[in-house]
Amino acid sequence: MLKPKVISQVLRQASTNGINAALLMNAGGSLLAFAAPSDREARIYAAIAANLWSTYLKSSNSDAAFRNEKQEDDLRLLILPCEEGVVAIAAPSITMLVCLVGDKSVDLGMLKAKIEAVSRHLSEPLEKVASYQQ
Amino acid sequence: MKKKVLLMGKSGSGKTSMRSIIFSNYIARDTRRLGATIDVEHSNLKFLGNLTLNLWDCGGQEAFMENYFASQRDHIFKNVEVLIYVFDVESRDVERDMHYYQSCLEAIMANSREAKIFCLVHKMDLVQEHQREKMYEERCRELRTRSEPLKIETFRTSIWDETLYAAWSTIVHALIPNIRTLESHLNNFCSICDADEVVLFERSTFLVIANAARINHIDAHRFEKISNIIKQFNLGCSRSQTHFKSMEIKGSSFTAFIDVLTNNTYVMVVMSDPSIQPAATLMNINVARKHFEKLAEP
Amino acid sequence: MTAQESFQALTQPYFEKGLKAALLTDREGVVVLECISPEAPEGIKDPALSTAFSIANNQASKMGLKKNNSIIGIYGTHQVIQIDNYPLIITLVALSTANTGKYLKVPTGNKTTLVILIKTL
User: Fold this and answer.
1) What are the C-alpha distances in Å from A68 to residues A63, C20, C96?
2) Which residues cross the membrane (chain C) (predicted)?
């Protein structure tokens, strides 16, 4: 089982140095825990991020290149630089997504390292939960 | 596991009515249709999957009663796990009621020493409100003295409110074999998801089986009220040929989730921390489901 | 110089630094220009990738961070960098270990050449 408060704490730790929001959501975009300036923003980020991820997941499943070696070459991470900030999305378990939203100052390499760290940190407990949900 | 439950009391005291409400989805006003029970009506009620209540609803007319104590004595009073004795609070012949009650206790003592005994002072709605407490206390005192040396548990009940659920919840609680384990797991579940309260209901009767709480709540009868309300709602659902699976109720200071837990139970989780997302709670209920299913296996 | 040749010239330095494929497509995935090395993963020309970009590019622009410029998808062994050059999309494919930042500089550093290229088409 998940302790929502512990996860919130992990996400709060990630939202420093230009990262404004850190979210954990399910594949449908429902928030499980977050650290963000407001509930409203968190909900919007979660809904869009889940959509973005599923769009790319679908495309890579239909894409011959990535179908060949599906196991090794599945989608790990999405980074979306925008004019006023940057979004990163990763999947710590098959049913869950983490999303970080940073401002313009955030270095892409740092963002990548950070989301990989958060995702790795959450993946073990989340995989355990996911195995129970099947 | 089959447990024999005797339901006894004077004719017209309301035994069959309460049984029909709790186990056969009657609503209180439907019980007017019920006639007097002839001899003994047996019913096997599946409860929590592996537990079956073998309920003996014993018609209370004097001719039958005499028979129970004489020719059918062994047959009726052997291997009883629970005796539920129903008293009509409005009865005019209290002495006679007590006489039958005591004969019944004698037979129980001789045949099923370990049986748990519950006395329901029923039809409390007929007593004027300001007299209820006093009246009930008096009856209890008398019942206790008359029952000695046996220990009894008493309840005031009415089919028109949640008191009936409170009494029957306590009764079935006493019958569930692994209740302690169930309670400790429920406590764990409650603290892991930071819930205020977690309540386990039996699926078809909606009787409260167990609960765990991390806060004190002022209303001691809230679960029975919820049982009552949800059961009514469920009956409404079945009239339109559907069953409800889960619901989420948002109040100004809390959110309550009611969801199917195992094949035989519903769970209610009450959360008051607004920082905990509903999806997280729902996921934890999902995880708990597998766990409790394993626990429920015989 | 044909458009294909100038595209090749434009992307050549990046191939030397490990780029596996460079494509210029429209939003439905129709390839306009391409340079693909033999080591590139098969089926990289699948239009699904471009349509995914056009949907995601549009959605990501609604997150309150103004316009989305590019999307980097990192897979187990490859990374796909898609850069918006409305109405066209530049798609670059490299190993997932490659330095992403280097490739992202393609449109800004060579914008003029590219704009001319796109216009001539």
Assistant:
1) 9, 17, 16
2) none
